[in-house]
Amino acid sequence: MKKIVLIGLYIITCLSCQSQEKINLEKVDFAESYKQILKNVKFQTDAREIVTTLPIAYTKNVSQYRFGNISFANSKENSIKSSTVGLLINNTKERLTKGIKIEVEDTSISNALLAYLKLQNKALKVLSRVPGKNNEGKVLGNAAYSWTLKDKTIVLVQYYEYTNNKPNISSVLYMVDNQVIAPEVQQTVVSRIIKTFTP
Q1: Among the listed residues 125, 86, 127, the one whose alpha carbon sits nearest the alpha carbon of residue 104
Q2: Distance CA 197, CA 157 (A)
Q3: Does residue 18 or residue 92 have the better pLDDT?
Q4: Cα–Cα distance between 82 and 14 in angstroms, integer?
Q5: How far apart are the C-alpha atoms of 149 and 25, rounded to whole Å?
Q6: What CA dihedral angle connects 180, 170, 44 and 153, to 10 degrees?
Q7: Global confidence as pTM
Q8: Is the pLDDT of residue 1 over 70?
Q9: What pLDDT band is residue 20 in, cutting at 50, 70 and 90?
């Protein structure tokens, strides 16, 4: 009888651990429905993400997700900007997952994300360099990097800004299918993102 109880407790513990495990966005299968990836969180959709021009479904509940070994933290409720995790969709009819967009509003997580990407992917291309200090000694502007993988491209943009007179680095990470075409402009989404962040 004790063995049955112990086995039962073990199974419950394992199931509990699995349900608390964060979804690794680095390993997202683009064949999977965006609704499946966002199934445990409240999310909303926009018809057009500004840079890619693709429809996007996104959530502010980012603590459920990670990218490799980098975990994300939810922004404070009264924050002007919030960290988000989004799934880019090819169009409003087929609604197939074609990429991810992660917005991070935290300097330490932004730095960890860049370090992780540099470590994991050797073919780094610098699209724009870290800006120099301005007349007031502040670093303002953005830097951007890309990595071309077998069937996807990753672009990381880091924004150097000041919040309440404190320096802050926020990041936007795109990981997109190399073949997906941007609506209306008839170019790949990847080339559109790269052009946007290349001076």
Answers
A1: 86
A2: 8
A3: 92
A4: 32
A5: 15
A6: 10
A7: 0.86
A8: no
A9: low
